[in-house]
Each structure stands twice: as C-alpha cells, then as structure tokens.
TrEMBL record:
This is Amino acid ABC transporter periplasmic protein. Belongs to the bacterial solute-binding protein 3 family. The lineage of its organism: Bacteria, Pseudomonadati, Pseudomonadota, Gammaproteobacteria, Cellvibrionales. Residues 33-248 form the Solute-binding protein family 3/N-terminal domain. InterPro entries: Solute-binding_3/MltF_N. Keywords: Signal. Residues 1-19 form the signal peptide. It comes from Simiduia agarivorans (strain DSM 21679 / JCM 13881 / BCRC 17597 / SA1).
Length: 257
C-alpha cells in the first residue's frame, strides 16, 4: 500500500466511519500527544502511530476514536474503563494487571538528549553531565529504563510539564536545559516549530511502545485480538517499517503539518 501521509489517514478513517461496524463498538483511544507519532493537526489526529492505527482499522474493519489528554488522565481512564486503549505506552511490569499488551509494538522509540546548541558542546555522551542541568519531562510518563532509574534514585530531579509539546519550547526559551525524548520527536520540534535545539548523539536508550488495551473496559476481547493480529501482520509484511521510513522522509522535508 502506498502512503500519502495525512490525506491517507483521513481518507481511511472517513471510509471506515461511513462503512460502520456492527460487530464491535468504536475503540476509545486515550492518547498522549507526542509528535510526530500522534498529534492533533488542523485536520484531526495524525502521525506515524495514527497511520498504523488507520491501516489496522482497514484490515480489521474496526473503527476507533482518539481523544487527546494528559498522561495522568489517560492512565486514569485505563483504571476506570472509561477508555479502551492508550497510546503510546511502554511495557512496565506494574502495568500488567491494568493493561493488555500486544506482541508487536507500534514503534520503537530511540531516545536522545534534547538541549540548546550552546549547551551541546558540554555533553560528552555521559548522563552524569546532565545531573546539574535543569531537566524537564512529562508528568507521570516513562522515558525508558535508564532515565527512569536516574529519576527514581534522585540523581536527576526533573521539572514536570503536562505534555511533550511544551518541552521543546521550554528548552528553547531557557526555562529548562535538557530533556530525553524520541529522536523523531526532537526532529519534529526543530522542523515544525523552528526552534533552535540540538540533538545529542548517540541515542541514550531505546524502548518499544504499544497500543495497549485496558483490562477494565467493556471492549470485546475478540475485537482486541483482531487489533493485535493486525499489528503482527503489519510487522511481518513490512508495513510498519514503510510507515516509519515515510515519516522520517517527511520530517526531513520542509513541509510538516
């Protein structure tokens, strides 16, 4: 299948909405905005993971609806069953009682350090050099085992914000010095927002992220399995890899919406 980005995503969603599906209710997705994987554009939800969800919808003939919210609220909806699925989320053992994780991740985040250009020369690839800087992260969100452990031990005490969109702006405005985020997100901030930011190599961590399902919701188990099977198929036939390549190319172009 050839992808044309946002237009493709919206077309698939409109076709599925018109077709309807009596076999299962609409999947209510609680989403944390994280460009370019999932974010709100002028035309509705878009992004790499949104495209993957749209392709899975086409394959399963199941529909979904995305609602954006802070991470803490999204997780609360998984507890109460007011949401059926959450994206994006990493696997953590303590979440196993709450969330059903598929075998296949929606994407694998490669985490890099984001900072201002004038601070980049001080970074030597050692996390210890970040301890004295003003570190910022999203409230309640995991940023991978390495930095989660540094935060838990108190070696890094982060400033907290409610969404990933504000992180790039905070660093560019000298209200924070560093953050750790997926490399494609950091590239998005540079290209889309035109912020003067630096990505520090090499990647400091990588971790798969999933479309995970609430065990507390009434969404049918058979429909959950169909979604998970679709992601398995897309991994095998190369669809997920092609989507990633498309978004990397798009981010390197001059037009991002």
């Amino acid at each position: 299948m050839k992808y044309t980005g946002l237009g493709c995503t919206l077309m698939l969603l409109m076709l599925l909405a018109m077709a309807g599906n009596a076999a299962a209710p609409v999947l209510r997705v609680s989403a944390v905005e994280l460009p370019p994987f999932i974010y709100q554009s002028d035309y509705g939800p878009t992004g790499l993971i949104v495209d993957a969800m749209a392709e899975a919808s086409l394959r399963t003939q199941l529909t979904f609806h995305i609602e954006f919210m802070p991470w803490t609220r999204a997780m609360s909806q998984m507890v109460t069953g007011d949401g059926d699925a959450i994206i994006p989320t990493q696997f953590k053992p303590e979440r196993g009682a709450l969330l059903l994780y598929p075998n296949t991740p929606a994407h694998t985040f490669k985490f890099v350090v984001l900072t201002r250009p004038e601070l980049a020369s001080d970074y030597k690839g050692k996390t210890a050099s970040l301890f004295t800087g003003r570190f910022v992260q999203v409230r309640g969100a995991s940023i991978g085992p390495v930095f989660d452990s540094l935060v838990a031990s108190g070696r890094i005490t982060p400033q907290l914000t409610n969404n990933f969109l504000s992180i790039g702006r905070m660093i560019a405005a000298n209200r924070a010095d560093y953050s750790v985020m997926p490399a494609l997100s950091a590239l998005y901030y540079q290209r889309k927002l035109g912020l003067s930011l630096a990505l520090l190599a090499p990647a400091v961590d990588e971790h798969p992220v999933y479309v995970a399902f609430s065990k507390q919701s009434d969404y049918p188990e058979e429909a959950q399995q169909r979604w998970m099977d679709a992601f398995d198929q897309m991994a095998v036939d190369g669809t997920l890899a092609r989507l990633e390549a498309y978004w990397v190319e798009r981010l390197q172009s001059t037009e991002i919406r």
